[in-house]
Amino acid sequence: MFVDNVKITVRSGKGGDGAVSFRHEKYVPLGGPAGGDGGRGGDIILKANEGMNTLMDFRYKRIFKAEAGQNGQIKGMYGHKADPVYIVVPAGTSVYDEDTGKLIGDLVEHNQELVVAKGGSGGRGNIHFANSKNRAPEIAENGEPGQELHLRLELKLIADVGLVGFPSVGKSTLLSVATSAKPKIAAYHFTTLSPNLGMVKLDSGLDFVIADLPGLIEGASNGVGLGIQFLRHVERTRVILHLVDMDPENGRDPYEDYVSIRNELAKYDDNILKRPEVIVPTKLDIPGSDERLKEFKDQLPDDVDIFPISSIQHTGVKDLMNHTSNVLQNAEPIHFEVQNEDETKEYNYESDASPLKIEKDGEHSFIVKGEDVERLLQRSNLDHQDGIMRFARMLKGMGVEEALMKAGAQSGDSVTILDFTFEFI
């Protein structure tokens, strides 16, 4: 089954907590704090694989989690960093932040990597908090929480040549004749419900990949028919083969069909029309098609590239493929933003920074909200008195105490930050 659009959730690993410990050994006369740092949490990394051509696997697994980093140890030993989680996707996958719609990255090269969620950094152990005033601090930091993102993966097939045209113009038949692909062929519209890929092998050795795209109709760019869900696959084709039906009994006008499809491509992305196009009149084996072809040519500009064929009789197909190969050699490459082979691109996720906010939750209770305050709580180890005093000092330094007094808080009132409640003094 072909799947080209899925939504997944990724959660990077939390950093390990820093340790509070002290050395009391025979040959360490000064002793002192010896709590090590926590290890970094695991990253979530997307990796492109050119051997895949569908996002089908994500229909069954949509949540990916990385492990937390190891907590700090005694004797100043650091916790172990968690291994990253690799998610393999097809080459040609665009990655979007589902919540904001922002394009995070484009994976178009084999083995290209994109870090979409970085693991939380490890907390510092008490070995870092010793000073001349406090030589035995019972202070340590908790590890930084991991990141959680909702992503939308959108596959845009990477093919050299794309077959476009109305339903039943002979795209699948041409693909089956020119390549070893076996697309579904039948005498009704919308036989092709998903793109098919095939490799054209030529005697010259200039092989290329061709994609049979589901039939477009007028209004496709607005979602009519199979609509915009398959137009995206035209974006990455370097040459367009525009098939037009010459059957005189189909009740359609070839020129109107040709103009209609070009209008839909322009509405979706006008850059597509700047690429080389070969017009391919089809079904030249049907009686009366020659006269229709002559009328069609008379309506076209003189400088168009046109190659009539009959896929059933194989007439003109080989010449068309050789000509398409020559057009490809002169076609401008489609440039993608690709980093160096040994470089992994990182997405720097930034949540919406919320300012400090005090809400009254009752006559004697208040709720404190704000990204910086909540982050401070998550990083603070409140299991020891020194850690609690440090947390209180930092709250005061951030202006929380003053803001609470302005909001009417008095000694004895309860204050809540996330899931932590304490008494205001």
TrEMBL record:
<feature type="binding site">
    <location>
        <position position="172"/>
    </location>
    <ligand>
        <name>Mg(2+)</name>
    </ligand>
</feature>
<dbReference type="InterPro" id="IPR036346">
    <property type="entry name" value="GTP-bd_prot_GTP1/OBG_C_sf"/>
</dbReference>
<protein>
    <recommendedName>
        <fullName>GTPase Obg</fullName>
        <ecNumber>3.6.5.-</ecNumber>
    </recommendedName>
</protein>
<feature type="domain" description="OBG-type G">
    <location>
        <begin position="159"/>
        <end position="329"/>
    </location>
</feature>
<keyword id="KW-0342">GTP-binding</keyword>
<comment type="similarity">
    <text>Belongs to the TRAFAC class OBG-HflX-like GTPase superfamily. OBG GTPase family.</text>
</comment>
<keyword id="KW-0479">Metal-binding</keyword>
<feature type="binding site">
    <location>
        <begin position="282"/>
        <end position="285"/>
    </location>
    <ligand>
        <name>GTP</name>
    </ligand>
</feature>
<dbReference type="InterPro" id="IPR014100">
    <property type="entry name" value="GTP-bd_Obg/CgtA"/>
</dbReference>
<dbReference type="InterPro" id="IPR027417">
    <property type="entry name" value="P-loop_NTPase"/>
</dbReference>
<feature type="domain" description="OCT">
    <location>
        <begin position="348"/>
        <end position="425"/>
    </location>
</feature>
<feature type="domain" description="Obg">
    <location>
        <begin position="1"/>
        <end position="158"/>
    </location>
</feature>
<dbReference type="InterPro" id="IPR045086">
    <property type="entry name" value="OBG_GTPase"/>
</dbReference>
<dbReference type="InterPro" id="IPR031167">
    <property type="entry name" value="G_OBG"/>
</dbReference>
<keyword id="KW-0963">Cytoplasm</keyword>
<keyword id="KW-0547">Nucleotide-binding</keyword>
<dbReference type="Pfam" id="PF01926">
    <property type="entry name" value="MMR_HSR1"/>
</dbReference>
<dbReference type="Pfam" id="PF09269">
    <property type="entry name" value="DUF1967"/>
</dbReference>
<feature type="binding site">
    <location>
        <position position="192"/>
    </location>
    <ligand>
        <name>Mg(2+)</name>
    </ligand>
</feature>
<feature type="binding site">
    <location>
        <begin position="165"/>
        <end position="172"/>
    </location>
    <ligand>
        <name>GTP</name>
    </ligand>
</feature>
<feature type="binding site">
    <location>
        <begin position="212"/>
        <end position="215"/>
    </location>
    <ligand>
        <name>GTP</name>
    </ligand>
</feature>
<keyword id="KW-0378">Hydrolase</keyword>
<feature type="binding site">
    <location>
        <begin position="190"/>
        <end position="194"/>
    </location>
    <ligand>
        <name>GTP</name>
    </ligand>
</feature>
<dbReference type="InterPro" id="IPR006169">
    <property type="entry name" value="GTP1_OBG_dom"/>
</dbReference>
<dbReference type="InterPro" id="IPR006074">
    <property type="entry name" value="GTP1-OBG_CS"/>
</dbReference>
<comment type="subunit">
    <text>Monomer.</text>
</comment>
<dbReference type="Pfam" id="PF01018">
    <property type="entry name" value="GTP1_OBG"/>
</dbReference>
<feature type="binding site">
    <location>
        <begin position="310"/>
        <end position="312"/>
    </location>
    <ligand>
        <name>GTP</name>
    </ligand>
</feature>
<comment type="function">
    <text>An essential GTPase which binds GTP, GDP and possibly (p)ppGpp with moderate affinity, with high nucleotide exchange rates and a fairly low GTP hydrolysis rate. Plays a role in control of the cell cycle, stress response, ribosome biogenesis and in those bacteria that undergo differentiation, in morphogenesis control.</text>
</comment>
<dbReference type="InterPro" id="IPR036726">
    <property type="entry name" value="GTP1_OBG_dom_sf"/>
</dbReference>
<dbReference type="InterPro" id="IPR015349">
    <property type="entry name" value="OCT_dom"/>
</dbReference>
<dbReference type="InterPro" id="IPR006073">
    <property type="entry name" value="GTP-bd"/>
</dbReference>
<keyword id="KW-0460">Magnesium</keyword>
